[in-house]
Amino acid sequence: MYIYLYDNFLRQKKYESQMKAIENRLTDFGIAGKILRLQRFANPEVIIEDEIKRGATAVIIVGNDATFGHILSRAARCDVIFGFLPIGQQNDIANVLGIPVGEDACDVLSKRRKVFLDVGWFNNRYFVSQLHIPFSPITIEYDEKFRVSSQSGLMELVVCNLQPFIWRGNKGDEFVVHPQDGKLEAFIRPMKKVGLFRKQYEDPSVFPFEEMVVKSTTPFVVEADGKQSKETKITIRLAKSRINMIVGKDRKF
Fold first, then answer.
1. CATH of 125-238 among 3.40.50.2300, 3.40.190.10, 3.30.70.360, 2.60.200.40
2. CATH entry, 2-112, from 3.90.1150.10, 3.40.1390.30, 3.40.50.1820, 3.40.50.10330
């Protein structure tokens, strides 16, 4: 049995005809199912576990990158097949998964081509897309042998899982953080100097890692899949083959 979790933004009138076309296509493929509309403060894990008890075998996320991250970061423990129907803007993850935006995504669902996806983990929370720490007085140690710091003590950190990250420097150089290659990728940009009118940065670095410890003597902000918290220490790891996901043949991994 298929369960379709609709993001609340799909109630907008501009999506009405597109959603109707998608629902008709799913019916043609024989994979229409129960539709549940997510409320703002609903816990996706509780909803999905209840539906699994009622016989659900596949849970399809309907929305954008934010929808995908919100649901799977909380429901990664659920033992069920996941799918994705990307709608609207902000769908970089769909491209990584090889899923077209809109009605054509139904074709991918119907073929049920599945792979197990890695998921990021930190402090007993999963993250699916990215983890971001804005410039903060942090120290970073990874794989128990490398330590990173900056002259000013301030660094920015981005750790990517499914959502790619691209940074373009002032000199035209480009750093690309790739998802799903068996390791997590980190983008680190230390701040060299904080001036009155201008900030100076050291050259950023991009590297893969298996485990990273980030800590500070003062709380720093951690943003992951739409959820923000303040921490003084986090340990980041990769949870391999955590999610069973339907993907397209043109996936990027």
1. 2.60.200.40
2. 3.40.50.10330
In angstroms, the CA 20 to CA 43 distance is 26
Q: What is the pLDDT of residues 150-180, one digit of tens each?
A: 877 899 999 988 887 887 776 667 777 766 5
Q: Is the pLDDT of residue 140 over 90?
A: yes
Q: What is the pLDDT of residues 87-103, one digit of tens each?
A: 988 899 999 999 999 99
To the question of pTM greater than 0.70 for the whole model, the response is: yes
CB distance 68 to 128 below 8 Å: yes
Give one DSSP letter per residue of 96-144, joined into a string: HHT--SSTTHHHHHHHT-EEEEEEEEETTEEESSEEEEEEES-EEEETT
